[in-house]
């Protein structure tokens, strides 16, 4: 797939969020191109893109400069990086926008939560260790690489995400896994893969059934959209994490 990259100037980078007090999204669009992505439902229209989700990225090249100005006027509160894009998608290796924003936030010791699917976050490990409050979460939706490839075509392999979580955890960074939306998986196996690598876990179900039902049907996975599927997986995950002494919270 050809990637359309556009350098843009953002008016604002530190924005209000429903998940945490603020969010920072250094990019518009996401190369990982996940089929279930919540942002793909509105972002192309909102950002006036006609390309397919996953085939365009706007790079907010003034992100750090604008953040420097915004945090001077804002109350210091937790920041979620990011929400509608992956802050460590491949283009971050070239542009370092997330890193530059982290440097600005570190200077003022703002509390941060990073959520990603990419081991590129390890590039910034030394920076993260200098924060008083920093945590990194990985979205891991299944233990099966073939399922991950189907739903998250350009995202790093599950094995790599788990290895990155382990490294961060060993280095003393608070870590979490976001298992959402739960895809076809062996819940006990996935939980055991995460046991000594995360401080806590969130679970969520597929919340956009009507827009994704066709995709599930094409791959004969309809069973994994049913309420019984999510109920059963939730119980299995909660019980496995409970037994391992890891805090787990279901959002459904
Ligand atoms: S990594 Fe996140 S933001 Fe990027 S496409 Fe996947 S779900 Fe969307």
Structural write-up:
α5 links the parallel β7 and β8. This protein is an alpha/beta fold and 252 residues long. It is built from 10 helices and 11 strands. The two termini are 35 Å apart. The chain is globular and about 50 Å long. The longest helix has 17 residues, at 227-243. It has a domain at 1-106. The structure holds iron/sulfur cluster. Iron/sulfur cluster binds next to loops.
Concise description?
The chain contains ten helices and eleven strands.
Q: Helices and strands: which structural class? A: alpha/beta
Supply Rg.
18 Å
Unreliably modeled segments: none
Order of helices and strands: EEEEHEHEHHEHEHHEHEHHE
| Shape summary | globular
Strand and helix layout:
Elements: E1 4-8, E2 14-16, E3 22-24, E4 27-28, H1 43-46, E5 56-60, H2 63-73, E6 79-81, H3 91-95, H4 97-107, E7 112-116, H5 125-128, E8 134-139, H6 145-151, H7 158-170, E9 174-179, H8 187-194, E10 200-203, H9 209-218, H10 227-243, E11 247-250
Parallel strand pairs: 1-5, 3-6, 6-7, 7-8, 8-9, 9-10, 10-11
Antiparallel strand pairs: 2-3, 4-5
The protein binds iron/sulfur cluster.
